[in-house]
Amino acid sequence: MPEITTDPAAPTLQDIEEARATLGGLVNETPAHRWHSPLLEARLGAESAVFLKLEVFQRTGTFKARGALLNALALDEQGRDRGVTAVSAGNHAIAVAFAAQRIGTSAKVVMMSTANPFRVAQVQAYGAELVQVPDVHTAFETVSAIERDEGRTFIHPFEGRATVLGSATLGLELARQAPELEAVIVPIGGGGLCAGVATAIKAVQPACRVYGVEPEGADTMHRSFAAGSPQGIDRVSTIADSLGAPHAAPYSFELCRRHVDELVRIDDDAMRRAMGILFLETKLALEPAGAAATAALLGPLAEPLRGKRVAAIVCGANIDAGTFFEQALFP
Length: 331
Prior knowledge:
The protein is of the alpha/beta class and 331 residues long. The chain contains 14 helices and 10 strands.
């Protein structure tokens, strides 16, 4: 992997702590649940210890609220008057709508027409104006036009310092809730979550390995690591629409490249099975992306992490009951 030039804007531990203080009670400190299970013992060995960072209990159901709020809170008076905009498969749109409502501004968000109806309803419940488009590439073009024509501030779903700092506050919580971790597994869509979590984990527990997980049908970070620069894909093809970013971006890519020790791919059926297992074992009904880290833990990472002290990020529960039971595979 090519050498990385030191980026003076990379978040420090103090930066992350200050970001968490800024968020205060606007977000929840979500629990790190110790998962005890005969299934885990069979897959990972009796001496293993697995923690699930349950960011599904965050405001709006995902980690996205952290970065959206940090971006919104940084707006000046003129920025608040003009409002914000965002592009998303659903979770980021919900978070931006929530953040806009909390600070008293307006939000106009772009979502794909295939977005889960539950997510659409959540966006509207927070009072945001919604624009739906046929695909992710059109979505990014549309949000750029809104930003240009209406003067709204674009809150990126995975790129930028404030967005990554929001994700880093999750990693900071986890590092302090579960000391002496040997591995942390983080889902990757665009890379903002993994960039933030990995940065925080390495700052507090530098010996801990960080694994990034991508769907086979949306492996932009794998391609970017291989090329040594942010890459895109022509088509997103995965059940995990929350992980279906069409490209990687420079800031989050560089932080991932610096702090992520290894990337793994998983297929859609692995996420389906993990959804079923987590429902039976923890009673959580997760969207596919929310089960991605667990799918990697029980799949390609099971042998490398056997007997280890491991944490998996569990994030993403914005799914209706009917879709959940259609998608989940139960053992």
